[in-house]
Amino acid sequence: MLVALVCIIAMAICTGGFSEDGWSAETPDKVTGREGKATILFCKFPHPQLGYKGQNNTGPVTGMKGDSVTLPCTFTPPDRFASSLTVLWMKGDPYTECTVFNHTRPLAADSRVTDSVTVNEEDRYGLIGNLTQGDASLRISDLQLNDTNDYFCHVHIKRRRREYVIRDVTRLRVVAPATILELSAVRDGITGGTIVCRVEGEPPANITWIDPENSTVHEDSSDTTVTRVPGKYQTVGRFLDPTLRGTYSCVAVNEHGREVRQIRLATAGFNYSNFIIGMFCLIPLVKFLLLLITGIILFIKIKD
Ligand SMILES: *[C@@H]1O[C@H](CO)[C@@H](O)[C@H](O)[C@H]1NC(C)=O
Ligand SMILES: *[C@@H]1O[C@H](CO)[C@@H](O)[C@H](O)[C@H]1NC(C)=O
Ligand SMILES: *[C@@H]1O[C@H](CO)[C@@H](O)[C@H](O)[C@H]1NC(C)=O
Ligand SMILES: *[C@@H]1O[C@H](CO)[C@@H](O)[C@H](O)[C@H]1NC(C)=O
Ligand SMILES: *[C@@H]1O[C@H](CO)[C@@H](O)[C@H](O)[C@H]1NC(C)=O
Ligand SMILES: *[C@@H]1O[C@H](CO)[C@@H](O)[C@H](O)[C@H]1NC(C)=O
Questions:
Q1: Any atom of ligand 6 within 6 Å of the Cβ of 253
Q2: Given Cys at both, which of 48, 96, 143, 150 links 52, Cβ 3.0 to 4.6 Å?
Q3: Cα of 100 from ligand 4 centre, angstroms
Q4: Does residue 2 surpass a pLDDT of 80?
Q5: Which CATH class is domain 51-174?
Q6: CATH 2.60.120.200: does it fit domain 176-272?
Q7: Closest residue to atom 8 of ligand 2, CA basis
Q8: How far is ligand 6, taken at its centre, from the CA of residue 206, in Å?
Q9: Domain range annotation of the chain
């Protein structure tokens, strides 16, 4: 009876205390205990639903590849009874999160913990705020495109015998200017070839081509194809069967940048058909020359 009452109270604390700031509580439907014995009550807090913007409604943070960015996380500053504080930053979806940063700091002189950073993936993370003022904002340096994710800030404060956890979530989006990684000509069988332009960019880059006659060939032309490489933030443009001799330009553009690179085709494409056509034109010419020479020889002989 008493256990059931305690359970209800605990459940009320769980749900009442956290649901309003985006967190939901999970408690077992039923907890059984024997009178006079101790029992354990679970109170699990899964992550907030995606789209929950954090207490200050800061919204997603956007950074450029290679730059640094700060993910905000503020919490109520620990009072003088707090003995230690641990800041955990995790990334991932709510079910496969992994810890990228773990900093523990003693707050009281007699605390048994030492000031230490136990996890700092690739040494790219750092706290830049003042923890004692309630700022656990995280700086991430040398941003990579695959850093795009949801980041969860958990601050564990030990106070007397209890531990308080404050949680927040921020979405990070990394963008990158359109950059040409590769422009090359690929011979493909005897029918012709392809010019390949591989571009990195986020949002994905648009690719247009300029042919040796200076006309612009758009993505949707029948001479070209465009494919996006999933998970690699790359777009691959192909110019099929280039038939003109001269310089082709690949123009890559997105809202953060533009790059143009050129490639020269010395022969008229790789298209042997031109060569074959040439050969067919040569045969009558050779025949004509042979006839001419025979004629001249005959003429000389007859004269003799
Ligand atoms: C929210 O963030 C802004 C700017 O980052 C700050 O000026 C403001 O004080 C914050 N508000 C609260 C309630 O924390
Ligand atoms: C973070 O570091 C503290 C202190 O070293 C350790 O007790 C704790 O288990 C660590 N937590 C995680 C999730 O790595
Ligand atoms: C952080 O804030 C506390 C309290 O306001 C102050 O005593 C301390 O000097 C600050 N630390 C830094 C590194 O600014
Ligand atoms: C993210 O991208 C970087 C650079 O391209 C690479 O070194 C790293 O292994 C990638 N990380 C993951 C988890 O895929
Ligand atoms: C191609 O176009 C550019 C700009 O429109 C111009 O400057 C250039 O002279 C043109 N080249 C040829 C070969 O027509
Ligand atoms: C890329 O192409 C799409 C569709 O053709 C167009 O809506 C968009 O504005 C283009 N983006 C840039 C940066 O040119």
A1: yes
A2: 48
A3: 14
A4: no
A5: mainly beta
A6: no
A7: 102
A8: 6
A9: 1-46, 51-174, 176-272
